[in-house]
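Lab notebook: predicted structure, single chain.

Context: the supervisor wants predicted structures on file for every construct in the current expression panel, including those that have not yet been purified. This is the next one on the list. No modifications to the sequence; it matches the entry in the shared construct table.
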Amino acid sequence: MDEKQDIDKMKEDILKNYPRMKREDTFNFSCHAGLKCFNQCCADVTIALTPYDILRMKNALDLTSDQFHARYTLIPFNKEQQVPVVILKMNDDEGKTCPFVSEKGCTIYEDRPWACRMYPVGLASPADGHVEEEEFYFIMKDRPCDGLNEPKTWTISEWIENQGIGEYNEMGELFKEVSLHPKLVGGMELDPKKMEIDPALLEKIKKDDLELLKLAFNWLKFSLFGERTMELKKKIVEFAKKAKQQKNSE
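Prediction complete. Output recorded below exactly as produced.
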């Protein structure tokens, strides 16, 4: 069974057999070095990274984006994928351990990715791509976890707030607006154009990676989907008008 079949089987199992939880529902969990399974959940696992995950991690490590991708990511691709997915590369050892985990825990804990922050809570949709279907939360059971037997009780909402997931969700929504856009999923030729960028913003994106990432999302929505998230430069607008007038006069 290949990786895709494994994932499809896991999705089917979650949809059929896992209790569906809402934000007010509760669960027990605490993770600490006193647990026998401490750090075991951080090995031999597939973690998809969003652009914001990568931004936080590469900044924490004082690396450029190119350096981070070269050292720590894989981008598997097959004919069934519509867009590339960036995967965190595990160490090439017997346990396939995470490169950022030490005996004391995560070495980039404050900047760990969304998937690590959410664990042991998962988020699923009954049908991929159908927005009318309601998302639900569930507790992951893919491996033994002593932390689920701890007395500490959380609601889903409390866990999300405690783990600082709000900002990740906000940036994740911007990413999904692009990566799941019907025109991108259905296919469309990219035709980038010169756009007006406020001088103050231009200076800001030279120093602020987060502002640069937000601009990139807007640029993609403008160029790929024709959304008015940016403005064309006046000379391009004038050129287009003249070309249209010339065509109408013929």
